[in-house]
Amino acid sequence: MSTHVSSKPVSMPMPSMPRVRRSREEVEAAAPVHGEKKVLLAAPRGYCAGVDRAVIAVEKALEHYGPPIYVRKQIVHNRHVVETLEERGAIFVEETDEVPEGSLLVFSAHGVSPAVVQSAKDRDLETIDATCPLVTKVHREAVRFAKNGYRILLIGHEGHEEVEGTYGEAPEVTTIVNGPEEVADLVVPEHEKLIWLSQTTLSVDETLETVRLLRERFPHLENPPSDDICYATSNRQHAIKKVAPQADLVLVVGSTNSSNSVRLVEVALEYGAKNAKLVDFAREVDEAWFEGVATVGVSSGASVPEVLVQEVLRLLADYGYGEIEEIVTAEEDIIFSLPKELRPILRAHGDESRALGGRGTKTPK
């Protein structure tokens, strides 16, 4: 029997090489800096209480149940967090049908629709609901207003996990509005009671503009009882608005699928930053961005641990940006209890860490 050996060359991937950075002197020679170098560090930044709660929920589940622990979608939208939890034994899946029957499944901080909850029950999965309580609030509003005969205009990014979950509470009476540009073509039944709700991680300014345009078209549009955009999103955007006008460059630490992180970059540019970039890690910062730059603004999205910000600050110090001024615009002391499904086992093991929140962000005194 003859064996055919292909003469076609086999392409072998080249190993990735460590990035060689230009020195501080080379960067400054390319474009001299006028003025003293400094960093404007936005506060609040980083972890919010809902993210903290969700991440700790997975950590505690791994600690007390042991791996593997399954998580539907990313627990929060941050590469470092997800990769760290994977190393500890968390398995991230897209849908419940990827989870072996009878296993433990954690719902992410972004929330899920009733259909997903039912699917987990159908597979006899034990579940821990790590949905941020502020997202749960919007879900409850959607259910309540639907029962009271309202059509819901849900302002948010179609396809985002949070929007999918909220929409799934009352799909027959909910219309998604992606932004101001969609208002003119919006069609809703006449004479219906209308109310708007929103994704919790949107641009505050853009959401207000969307609502303004909606009210021009539908004067009877009603407001929800309280603002749906969460405190952490609002606070981080407010802080970056203070930093941006003074910054030649703004670095936002966060992942590209993190809505609130992406919004920080947009807000920085809108409010006067000459340049703004989103990076997951310090290694992604291009030193060419420092050419001619005197002032660098730094912030991070609500799903970003502080350790990643500190890595960026160390890199900046290597390039002469050692002076740090913290721009503080709010204090955060929000605390959320861990998911109710976890509390009995934590009590049984004498673990008193049942009320946590805001880890990773230094709260000013």
Automatic annotation (TrEMBL):
EC number annotated for this UniProt entry: 1.17.7.4
Gene3D superfamilies documented for this protein: 3.40.50.11270, 4-hydroxy-3-methylbut-2-enyl diphosphate reductase, catalytic domain
InterPro entries per the UniProt record, alphabetical: LytB/IspH (IPR003451)
Keywords per UniProt: 4Fe-4S, Iron, Iron-sulfur, Isoprene biosynthesis, Metal-binding, Oxidoreductase
Binding site for isopentenyl diphosphate: 77, 110, 160, 258-260, 303
Binding residue positions for dimethylallyl diphosphate: 77, 110, 160, 258-260, 303
Family matches, as Pfam families: LYTB (PF02401)
Skewed-composition ranges (Low complexity): 1-18
Keyword flag Ribonucleoprotein: no
GO molecular function, a single term: 4-hydroxy-3-methylbut-2-enyl diphosphate reductase activity
Cofactor binding description: Binds 1 [4Fe-4S] cluster per subunit.
Reactions catalysed: dimethylallyl diphosphate + 2 oxidized [2Fe-2S]-[ferredoxin] + H2O = (2E)-4-hydroxy-3-methylbut-2-enyl diphosphate + 2 reduced [2Fe-2S]-[ferredoxin] + 2 H(+); isopentenyl diphosphate + 2 oxidized [2Fe-2S]-[ferredoxin] + H2O = (2E)-4-hydroxy-3-methylbut-2-enyl diphosphate + 2 reduced [2Fe-2S]-[ferredoxin] + 2 H(+)
Chain segments carrying region Disordered: 1-23
Residue sites binding [4Fe-4S] cluster per the record: 48, 132, 230
Binding site residues for (2E)-4-hydroxy-3-methylbut-2-enyl diphosphate: 77, 110, 160, 200, 258-260, 303
Cofactor: [4Fe-4S] cluster
Active site annotation, chain numbering: 162 (proton donor)
Pathway note: Isoprenoid biosynthesis; dimethylallyl diphosphate biosynthesis; dimethylallyl diphosphate from (2E)-4-hydroxy-3-methylbutenyl diphosphate: step 1/1; Isoprenoid biosynthesis; isopentenyl diphosphate biosynthesis via DXP pathway; isopentenyl diphosphate from 1-deoxy-D-xylulose 5-phosphate: step 6/6
PANTHER family reported for this sequence: 4-HYDROXY-3-METHYLBUT-2-ENYL DIPHOSPHATE REDUCTASE
Membership in a protein family: Belongs to the IspH family.
Role summary: Catalyzes the conversion of 1-hydroxy-2-methyl-2-(E)-butenyl 4-diphosphate (HMBPP) into a mixture of isopentenyl diphosphate (IPP) and dimethylallyl diphosphate (DMAPP). Acts in the terminal step of the DOXP/MEP pathway for isoprenoid precursor biosynthesis.
Protein name: 4-hydroxy-3-methylbut-2-enyl diphosphate reductase
